[in-house]
Amino acid sequence: MQFSHDDMTKLARLSRLHLNEAELGARQKDLEQILGYVQTLQAIDISQTKPMTHAVPMELHLRADEPKPGIGREGLLGSAGYEDGLIKVPKIIE
After folding, report:
1. pLDDT the model gives residue 2
2. C-beta neighbour count of 54 within 10 angstroms
3. What is the pLDDT of residue 76?
4. DSSP, res 41
5. CA atoms within 13 A on the CB side of 56
6. Distance in angstroms (rounded) separating the CA atoms of residues 29 and 37
7. Cα distance between residue 37 and residue 77, in whole Å
8. Do the Cβ atoms of 85 and 74 come closer than 8 Å?
9. Could you state, in chain order, the average pLDDT of each consecutive group of 10 residues for the chain (94 residues)?
């Protein structure tokens, strides 16, 4: 795809870029090269390609969701933050 000087000037203005003439010419070549590459990619037939979520085939290994005993109230009895059946935590909001 070819861009004219006016196209590049308008694109630079819309992008809020202050480019001199040399920079405009260089960015014009870069943009044409990038869009040429995109056109090459669009020509590839991907109709037989399966969608994937990761580049490497992966399988999630999930563990069984089973209840397990915790430390309970008895486990907190000796802690410094346990008082009158409640757990004391530091104040975080003034």
Report:
1. 85
2. 6
3. 75
4. H
5. 3
6. 12
7. 67
8. no
9. 88 92 92 93 90 82 87 75 78 82
